[in-house]
């Protein structure tokens, strides 16, 4: 059985020429940001990748076909679509097999990128262990994916709505390298730093590429998480966000939000409660991650 998979023209050309490619996800577009900022951001992020010498490949499932790179029109349609499925490892194959349309999370984008031969992927923040997971068992499939699919993921750490201590404990258990870029502490999504020491630190893209290649050479399955801090002039202090995150979490609990709905609900409420400041910071951090990912893809192509 073959996988219905199509490459955007510029991605196909880049693949043939050995030009560096950076995968981008689509759940951040459909479930992570409101329209029209979601589409505007996706375009800015693609331009950031290009300015840093790589070709962007935004990934999504459209009418049963896995798209590696979207046209401007496809991006715009996806960005305005209502009730798009949020696809992870559990449901991406079913969506393709039944001719459905869905946006790919970090986990599903890693699977698709690997199938397409793309080694580097940029996003905002990965999913992880939710606060209260000891009773809800809500742990993102992104963590298991990092443990088994060999793609280097550049993110501003795990999203600060999560239990960051538990998230990094699970990543350690799973054997996922967590590499802070240019600092000794882990970033916390909207904030550049956190009290958590970084398990590993690297200061340039070529070291990150070398570590990726060494894992492959050693036959170690799984990827790497590059925790890239938001630029300090764009960050929101953790103290400012703490009461807002707490309020959003308590509302989610009161309203019985669960499963795939949790992260989009929390991001949406935090956007409202910060009068849009969380979105401005989210845009800055994802663009910063795209730039670093392009540099890593460049080093891997050398
Ligand atoms: N980064 C962002 N915003 C997002 C996401 C990442 O800046 O909305 C998405 C990614 O697709 C990630 C998902 O995989 O959030 C996590 O969802 P969950 O917690 O349900 O696993
Ligand atoms: Mn979840």
TrEMBL record:
Catalytic activity as recorded in UniProt: D-ribose 5-phosphate + uracil = psi-UMP + H2O
Cofactor(s) listed: Mn(2+)
Transmembrane annotation, as ranges: none
Keyword Heme listed: no
Annotated cofactor note: Binds 1 Mn(2+) ion per subunit.
Xref: InterPro entries: Indigdn_synthA-like, PsuG
GO biological process: one example: nucleobase catabolic process
Cellular component per GO, a single term: cytoplasm
Record-level Gene Ontology MF annotations: hydrolase activity, acting on glycosyl bonds; metal ion binding; pseudouridylate synthase activity
Positions contributing to substrate binding: 86, 106, 140-142
E.C. no: 4.2.1.70
Binding site for Mn(2+): 138
Protein's UniProt keywords contain rRNA-binding: no
Catalytic residues, chain numbering: 25 (proton donor), 159 (nucleophile)
Pfam families in UniProt: Indigoidine_A
Main enzyme class: lyase
Physiological role: Catalyzes the reversible cleavage of pseudouridine 5'-phosphate (PsiMP) to ribose 5-phosphate and uracil. Functions biologically in the cleavage direction, as part of a pseudouridine degradation pathway.
Subunit (UniProt): Homotrimer.
Family: Belongs to the pseudouridine-5'-phosphate glycosidase family.
Record protein name field: Pseudouridine-5'-phosphate glycosidase
Lineage start: Bacteria, Pseudomonadati, Pseudomonadota, Alphaproteobacteria, Rhodobacterales
């Amino acid at each position: 059985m073959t996988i219905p998979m199509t490459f955007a023209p510029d991605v196909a050309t880049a693949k043939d020429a050995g030009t560096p490619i950076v995968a981008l996800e689509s759940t951040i577009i459909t479930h992570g940001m409101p329209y029209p900022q979601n589409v505007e951001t996706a375009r800015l992020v693609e331009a950031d990748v290009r300015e840093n010498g790589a070709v962007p490949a935004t990934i999504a499932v459209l009418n049963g076909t896995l798209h590696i790179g979207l046209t401007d029109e496809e991006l715009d349609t996806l960005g305005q679509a209502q009730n798009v499925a949020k696809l992870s490892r559990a449901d991406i194959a079913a969506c393709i097999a039944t001719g459905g349309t869905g946006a790919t999370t970090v986990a599903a984008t890693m699977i698709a990128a690997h199938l397409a031969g793309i080694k580097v992927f940029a996003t905002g923040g990965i999913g992880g262990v939710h606060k209260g997971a000891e009773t809800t068992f809500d742990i993102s499939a992104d963590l298991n994916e990092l443990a088994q699919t060999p793609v280097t993921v550049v993110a501003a750490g795990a999203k600060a709505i999560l239990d960051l201590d538990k998230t990094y404990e699970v990543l350690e258990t799973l054997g996922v390298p967590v590499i802070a870029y240019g600092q000794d502490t882990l970033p916390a999504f909207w904030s550049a730093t956190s009290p958590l020491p970084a398990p590993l630190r690297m200061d340039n893209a070529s070291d990150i590429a070398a570590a990726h290649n060494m894992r492959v050479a050693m036959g170690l399955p799984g990827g790497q998480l590059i925790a890239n801090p938001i630029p300090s002039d764009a960050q929101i202090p953790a103290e400012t966000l703490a009461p807002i995150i707490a309020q959003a979490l308590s509302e989610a609990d009161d309203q019985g939000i669960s499963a795939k709905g949790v992260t989009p609900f929390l991001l949406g409420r935090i956007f409202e409660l910060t009068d849009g400041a969380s979105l401005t910071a989210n845009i800055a951090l994802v663009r910063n991650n795209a730039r670093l990912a392009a540099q890593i893809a460049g080093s891997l192509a050398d």
